[in-house]
Design brief:
Length: 290
Amino acid sequence: MASLSLLLPLALTAGACSSSNVVVTPTSDAAPGDDAATPDGGSAADADAGNNPRNPTGLGPAAVGLGTAASPGNAGAFVVLAQTAVTNVTGSSVSGGDVGLSPAAASFITGFGLVMDNTNVFATSVSVVAPGKVYAADYAPPTPAALTTAVAAMRAAYADAAARTNPDFTNLASGNIGGRTLTPGLYTWDGDVTIPNDVTVAGAAGDVWIFQVANTLDLASARNVVLSGGALAKNVFWQVAGSVTIHANAHFEGIILGKTDIVLQTSASMHGRALAQTLVAMDNNALTAP
């Protein structure tokens, strides 16, 4: 039986925010309502008033997990994972992980020129850089069960991120975060978030960011999400209840946990993961795992 890359475990983590010229940070290491007597960097057991564990390896909240070693499939194996469709315009490239679709069948994966393996467990594509593979719910076992588990992990990760309370920042800049520098922490917006100019996510390698967006997330054409200070894309989580649009020639960093669709327009690029509960649409994009 062919070995599934989607059986491999992957753990992830999250961070906080600031203003266009002045970095906005919490007044102490503790989140609002946290037990400041216990350093947040010391133990994941130290929780804030919302009973949210803090990050044991740096600043910000605890990481959002995308799967564990005990799972037969995990969302962290995928650069692209969707439930209803994955579409692609020739020229896209996915590297560092897999593409998956469930419960929809392989016929809803379009534009990849799929070539089935002789086991029927997975397919390959010129758009998915080896050893990455393509998996669909109607492929041979153990793929269907593994995908069901991976999708469940994706949905659980979304629910985890959405359930975090007691944010460090609420409705920062009324959702227009272009030009801002975002330090580690938990951010929440009760509406849309727009990025009309470059935005910087600044922090160390162990820091974590969770961005809760109640409606849409929109990154303007030719604009960038920029990491600085050692911040890692695998620790930046965007939990979005509405549509996500990364416009033409823009560059995005982080893990998108989308309740609906994620659309990458022509020549947009992404360093992270596009994990959608409906569809992921690609158009001559470069997507690289964090």
